[in-house]
Amino acid sequence: MTELTNLTIHETLRKLRAREVSPIEVTEAYIKKIEENNSKYNAYVTTSFDKALDGAKESEKRYINGTNKSLDGIAIGVKDLFCTKDIRTTACSHIIDNFVPKYESNVTQNLLNDGALFLGKLNLDEFAMGGSNETSCFGPVVNPWSKDVKLVAGGSSGGSAAAVSANLCAGSTGTDTGGSIRQPAAFCGVTGIKPTYGRCSRYGVIAFASSLDQAGPICKDVTDCALMLNSMAGYDNRDATSSNVSVPDFTSFIGQDIRGLKVGIPDEYRIEGMNEEIAQYWNKATKMLEERGAEIVRISLPHTKYALPSYYVIAPAEASSNLARYDGIRYGNRVDGNNMEELYINTRTQGFGKEVKRRILIGTYVLSAGFYDAYYLKAQKVRRLIKNDFDEAFKKCDVILTPTTPVEAFAIGDKTMSENPINMYLNDVYTVSVNLAGLPAMSLPIGLSKNGLPLGMQLIGKAFDEATIFKTAYQLERDVNFKRI
What we know:
The chain has helices at about 10-15, 25-40, 50-65, 105-115, 160-165, 180-190, 220-230, 275-290, 305-320, 340-350, 355-365, 370-395, 415-420, 420-425, 430-435, 465-480, and strands spanning about 45, 75-80, 115-120, 170-175, 190-195, 215-220, 260-265, 295-300, 400-405, 440-450, 455-460. By secondary structure, the protein is α/β, with parallel strands linked by helices. An 11-stranded mixed beta sheet has the order 1-3-2-4-6-5-10-11-9-7-8, with helices on both faces. A hairpin with a 5-residue loop joins strand 10 and strand 11.
């Protein structure tokens, strides 16, 4: 039954609805695959096989009765940033590594309501802070495309992308604060979409940067992302940032014609140091869309060069505020001291990893008296200018095509990254602008490098216009015909 794990979600649903296989058979196939292979990839940090099998039995009853739901019997993995009732949720940090929630996040509850089954919780960079999934307290995730050298899976949703790539789940949930769905999807040769800010509820998702975080799916192809986002999205009055806008059936846009669609190519994204192969694939993708009848338009996003500096002021500032609650008294594991101050110091010193501490310190600094106006307030003004750039660009085009990352997956422990955090941050150069502007964007595989590693291409859409992204991405996917491992 292991071949069942190679199927996409929509292929699995066809077999389930035709009664060619049962939800129990599918779930058992994934469990077997995880038991045999997870040690190679370190994708799962907690498993919930018994719950998944219990859910599969209920799905089986619904298929027999003809009352099956949209994702009934689909076994998925959940990024360990989503609170899952009675399943350990750690954000891959020692400070909450024994937390077992008594409630369900909105996104995961939506998936459960539609019949999805949870195989377990997936590895990530600690509190989603990182671009390589090396900051996790459970150790790094290994990219399934690794050969002689172990490669990073990307971050922060590295476990989510690796699990899908290695067929350890049919699809997974991720979160994206500055590229944390799209970058690992590109590194692992899978597809992931960051929806418009507010499209998916943040209720029950452990916060990193509240004005940037957004949940989304990582899947094997574009159609699967549409199926999962159908379930994940929706208004939630428990989340003040949730947008009360209607959610279309994203699968209805799969296969639509893109003739006459205007595709924007931003001049500023042709940066120095871009991998030449990525530049060539960008040109190839542009030509593919043009041959499908799309019109290629040159656009300008003049404040792009300020996106990374403003992001790395705003995101750490919000992180320092959100993580202040983990002090050993209100939340988090406690490390005692001789007095209150020592308790705080001991708890946070032992509970947080190096990258989280770095961002807390940066964030606290830029919010401090005397520096707030110079850094945080100025970064927010730049953020508005970046948003205005996109607004102007979308007067000329319907969707924007760019690379997802400037490089391919690199080796775990690469000193040029680990010893110089700025190099790691530069990997987000194509993705952070989207989060600052609150726009939707998808990464899908475009081909392989000369080293045999996947490279990704990004499509950026207007706010709440994921539909145009889906129909464009599907046509590009058809022409690329990327072969998953």
